Amino acid sequence: MRKLSLAAALLAGSAITTPAFAEGHLQIVDEPLELTIQMNHRAYPIYEEDWPVEQAARALTNIHLKDVTVGANMRTDSENTGNTEALNLMLASGTIPDIVGSSRIKDFVNQYGPEGAFYPLNDLIDEHAPNIKAFYAERPDIAASVKAADGQMYYIPYLPDGKYGRAYWIRTDWLDALGLDMPETVDEYEAVLRAFKTQDPNGNGEADEVPFFARQWPELIRLVTLWDGRAHGSDTYHDFYVDDGQITHGYIGEGYREGMKNLARWYADGLIDAEIFTRGSSARDFLLSENLGGATHDWFASTGGYNSLASEIEGFEFKAMVPPASVSGKQIEEHRRILVKPDGWAIGHTNEHPVETIKYFDFWFTEEGRRLANFGVEGMHYDMVDGKPIFKQEFLDAGPVNRSLYQIGAQLQGRGYFQDYDYEVQWTNEIALEGIELYEQGDYLIPDFLGVSFNADEQRIYDKHWGSVRDYMLERQQAWILGSADIEEEWDDYLAQLDSLGLQDVLEVMQSAYERQYGN
Amino acid sequence: MSGVNLSGIVKAYGALQVVHGIDLNVAEKEFVVLVGPSGCGKSTTLRMIAGLEEITDGDLMIDGRRMNRVAPKDRDVAMVFQNYALYPHLNVAENMAFGLRIRKMPKDQIKTTIDDVAEILGLTPYLDRRPADLSGGQRQRVAMGRAIVRHPKVFLFDEPLSNLDAKLRTQMRAEIKRLHNRLGVTSVYVTHDQVEAMTLADRIVVMNDGRIEQIGTPMELFNNPANTFVAGFLGSPPMNQMKGVLTETGAKIGNTELRLHGAINGHQGRDVIVGVRPEHVTLAESEGTTALPINLDLVEPLGSEALLHAHHGEDNLVFKADTNGDINHLYGVGTVHVPAHLIKLFDAETGRALNLGA
Amino acid sequence: MSDRNSDVGGIPIEEVVVEAQEALRDRSQTRVPDKNWVKVLDHFKREWQIYAMLLPTLIWFVVFLYKPMYGLQIAFKDYSIFRGVAGSPWIGWEHFETLFTNDQFLRAVRNTIYISALNLLFGFPAPIILALMFNEVMHATYKRTAQTIVYLPHFISSVIIAGIVITAFSPSAGIVNTFISWLGFEPIYFLTQPEWFRPIFVGTGIWQEAGFGSIVFLAAIAGVNPSLYESAVVDGANRWQMMWKITIPSILPTILIMLIIRIGNVMEVSFELVILLYQPSTYETADVVNTWVYRQGLQSGQYDLAAAAGLFNAVVAFVLVMTANTLSRRFSRTSLW
Predict the structure, then answer these.
(1) Which residues on chain C are in Cβ contact (under 8 Å) with A275?
(2) pLDDT (tens digit per residue) in B245-291
(3) Are B83 and C225 within 8 A, CB to CB?
């Protein structure tokens, strides 16, 4: 144990009762082994060796990660191209580190893995990673989704936990002020939004209320689910979805057509933020704090936090509501936390210790490793209470918890690990928890599309057509909402145009890839 | 009353006065040259006449009309600039026509005018060329042509020849003189070159430090400079000036006494500047001359003449002597002979010419 | 000569070889210093400082312009970063076929040219007019203040510029719509309407760059011989006439050079600003080649396709610059080279 040096001393000092650590049953190698790592994510552009979590992992496994990240930048645009850039730069530099971790790594490793840039992991997992193997045995759908077109896995993914992401939110105090009940159907929802617009719930004498708003305008399109349409098949906007084993797209469905027709009407009537397409990420912040916004569709945790505005706006109450029943009576929440992210880590082809590396990856799927990845270091960041990790109060008080976790090297999505939703429950605000509870009572969620991996031919067809198809879909979509074109008049032409742009070809390759990947 | 009349003209830039009240009458058809060292205010005076500079104080009359507040275009003057000020994007004919077009002269009339002037200036073959394709002399002629076509009451020349080489300058000088004789337009000409001034002017105005030092015909100024400045400015080389003291019979310079014509009339003992033109001394003694011993420093042959650079006491002197085809005999010169009647005297303190005879 | 040729044909080959060998030996034995070579060496010895000063520029050109040209070949390859430029297989014109069979790419090309044409038509004269106007301003303090104000937008990042534009044209709170409502008209959601994108984009470009662009023209105006104006004043020209007959013709060479350079950038519509201002609903008029490439190529790592589009841009720009330069040289004797 002498070689554990400073970090171990630190641990030993702070962690008074850590019996599991001392046993050394997680140790992978006898002599310390150094592996190089590239890890780039917008919240942590490089892998920092003095993260307490890394230090603890070293002590436990005897494997040291050494940061060699190239091309790191702090770009935080929504498309996260900064990460892709860093990966591409790393490849172009000609040296691939032993471990490569990143957000959006899936397409990257599934393209370059088969070309030989990364180790195929199937056999390694089978032989040396009992915990990962056990996880995949339980979740074959996830195992299928991470595979490349050649059937190999090339990365160990970050696996989010918890089901709920976004929800419908509404100003309940406005409902009370106007003497309205919580809307339960799409018609009631419309009536409420209309009342928000016309009956001056904020009481300033002006019809300046913005009944429905969204930070990301595609959230508006999601409302087509109220007319039994589909918008986004996964947590990626404008994604495909699977309908009874068939890959299809929301934007060609009848429900979408009906929904868009009605949303256009809502927009024309002022029920939807006139600036929905340009207001951008500050929409929620601005419209809520100005006492203008009435309803939205947004994340549980962060949106619930706006109830602190009650100190400034009298009676302010912004609460989650269950999805209004659609025209056919279905209550659907299209958005959910996806089961598997395209984030995680992979083994570079020049790695001389693939077995040790996969064992190291497997370590993070052990009970201790998973706890370390989720909560940080016991005694430093959390304590075990009744067999459960509970964050120390001073850690929770030290500012946004997510950021604090990043800063100690926990919850890194460039690391392959299985998230534990308990970590979030401990600091999610009550309003959000209340909302989640509300959603738990009903069965609103629908399965996500987990994506497919193309072979080279499929990829070529997809690349050739999909961009044009998507552009055209979005162009018409906005035009219909804005009223510059009429969906009813255009619909047949629209479908024909999509076909001529190659939508059927795209669906075809998606289907073949899907069947290969999930079909068994 | 025609011509150009300046009375009490002052130019000041804020607190800095650069022209201190000038009085000058230029008669109709007269060719007056303003000459002086750079910074003496001659160009400023010319630009005030043109209307390019505002007149701070005093009156400017052209053809009997007060022009102080009149816009340049309405003064009926034409100006020729030192760097010609030709429009590089216009050809010769267009350059000359510029002022006429602006005055909306009918096209056919413009054409005949320009053809006439081009003929006079010998520019006819070049009418289609751009300034960049012309020689310096041709450009200068275009600049003059542009002034001439306007038929102004007054020509103003601002050092028009100073950008030309020596040979061309001599040639153009003569051409300007001929043109003036032919056109007979009142002209005010600014130069720092005293040769130009001497050769061109009906009258020369010598300016220094914002003031007029002397006005007169070239020969008046040459023969009777009003002060040491004029004496030192005109003539090539200029007049030698030596410090001296008047005696009963002449002027004593160091140990040498130069005899003078006329009476000293009780001015004995007065400090004076003794002026002797380089070309007035002779190497041989003759009647009415006084010998002036000199130490010869240098002989500069000019051809038929040579310049003798010498000193007498502390005064550096330059004399002209005939070479007669050989300068060797000049190296031995130790004495020059000064004719008494050509010696000029100036007050040592004021620098003004002394006329003791009167 | 024909006689000699036939002679050579008649000589046995051995003899020819021997002769040649002798000739070579003679040459090496009686080797006189190669005069040209020595001259060049002497020249370098004497003038090496000048060449040393040239060196940084040459290195810059080689490293940043010529070496990357090697990578242009990926436009004709199925490029994989992992395989590298040399290791990726050739696929000929496939990327170009992809581009030119794609209606949206062709639309982007049309939009690029359209926006550039508007930029040339309105954006190019703007700094010239501004410079002429500044030149007429006499009051020094006023002039300096005004110049600073119009230079300022150039130094603001495109992101902020876009934010200002979005705010200014906002249908609910924007100053433009406030004014429109005040006049009694319905507010317009400018940034989602295809027909408004071009005017807003070009106008923003002018607002952002006209001031800074005027500097070069102000410098050109400052270089005009002041006696030209004095001469014109004496000739009776007013300020308007002086501007048209002296200032503009005098800076015409500068204008033409700037125009040629500008024409060379026709395919380079300010990409960041488009990205920040456009919406799917305005793709119809706003989507330019670079944004299209960004969406199709870079987002999915299709560098080869992006390189093909870039090569196409370069070829178009090259042809345009050559044409403009030739025309300019022929008609105004002004040209870049």
Answers:
(1) 170-172, 189
(2) 888 888 888 888 888 876 667 778 888 899 999 988 888 888 878 88
(3) yes
Measured CA to CA in angstroms, residue A466 lies from A460, A503, B245 at distances of 10, 7, 110
Residues spanned by the domain of B264:
238-347
Instruction: Say if residue B162 is in the same domain as residue B255.
Output: no
Subunit contact C82:A117, Cβ cutoff 8 A? yes
Q: Is B333 on the interface with C (CB under 8 A)?
A: no
Check if the beta carbon of residue C115 is closer than 8 Å to that of residue C288: yes
Q: How far is C211 from chain A (nearest CA, A)?
A: 28
Q: Structural domain boundaries of chain C?
A: 1-31, 43-92, 94-332
Domain A2-162+341-420 -> CATH class = alpha beta
Tell me if B332 sits within 8 A of B283, measured CB to CB.
no
Residues B133 and B264 in one domain: no
CA distance B160 to chain C (A): 13
The verdict on residue B142 lying in a domain is: yes
Work out the minimum CA distance from C279 to partner chain A, whole angstroms: 7
Q: Per residue of chain C (337 residues), what is the pLDDT tens digit?
A: 334 444 444 455 555 555 556 655 655 555 555 678 888 888 888 889 999 999 999 999 999 888 888 888 989 998 888 888 888 899 999 889 988 988 889 999 999 999 999 999 999 999 999 999 988 888 888 988 988 899 999 999 888 898 899 889 988 778 888 898 888 888 888 888 889 999 999 999 999 989 999 999 999 998 888 889 988 888 888 888 889 888 998 898 899 889 888 888 888 888 888 988 888 888 889 999 888 888 876 656 778 888 898 899 889 888 988 988 888 888 777 777 7
CATH code of B42's domain: 3.40.50.300
Q: Is residue B261 one of the residues assigned to a domain?
A: yes
Query: Chain C contacts of A81, Cβ < 8 Å?
Result: 298-299
Using a CB–CB cutoff of 8 Å, tell me whether A484 touches chain C. Answer: yes
Q: Which amino acid is at B12?
A: A
What mean pLDDT comes out for the span A78-89?
68
Chains that touch B (3 or more CB pairs under 8 A): C
**Cβ contact A275–C172 (<8 Å):** yes
Do B247 and B208 lie in a common domain? no
Q: State the sign of the Cα–Cα–Cα–Cα dihedral B85, B90, B96, B100.
A: negative
Q: Which chain C residues have a beta carbon less than 8 Å from that of A113? A: none
CA within 13 Å, CB half, A410: 29
Contact call for B99 and C235, based on CB within 8 A: yes
Instruction: Decide if B355 is inside a domain.
Output: no
Among chain A residues, CA nearest to C99: A464
Could you give phi then psi for residue C46, rounded to 5 degrees? -75, -40
**Does the ipTM surpass 0.90?**
no
In angstroms, what separates the C-alpha of C234 from chain B's closest C-alpha?
Answer: 5
What's the structural domain count of chain B?
Answer: 2
Residue type at B59 in one-letter notation: D
Domain ranges of chain A: 2-162+341-420, 165-335+449-520
Which of B229, B249, B266 is the endpoint of a domain?
B229
Three-state SS sequence of B230-295: HHHHCCCCCCEEEEEEECCCEEEECCEEEECCCCCCCCCCCEEEEEECHHHCECCCCCCEEEEECE
CA distance A463 to B341: 110
Taking an 8 Å cut-off on Cβ atoms, the answer to whether B85 and C227 are in contact is: yes
**Residue B96 to residue B85: CA distance in whole angstroms:** 11
Domain A165-335+449-520, CATH among 3.20.20.60, 3.40.50.300, 3.10.450.50, 3.40.190.10: 3.40.190.10
Cis peptide before A140 (omega within 30 of 0): no
B244 and B208 in a common domain: no
> Is the CB of B151 inside 8 Å of chain C's CB atoms?
no
Cβ pairs A/C, distance under 8 A? 83
Class of domain C94-332: mainly alpha
β-bridge mates for residue B296, sequence order = B310
Both B165 and B85 in one domain: the answer is yes
Domain boundary among B229, B250, B268: B229
Shortest distance between the Cα of A468 and any Cα of chain C, in A, equals 7
CB contact under 8 A, C225 and B78: no
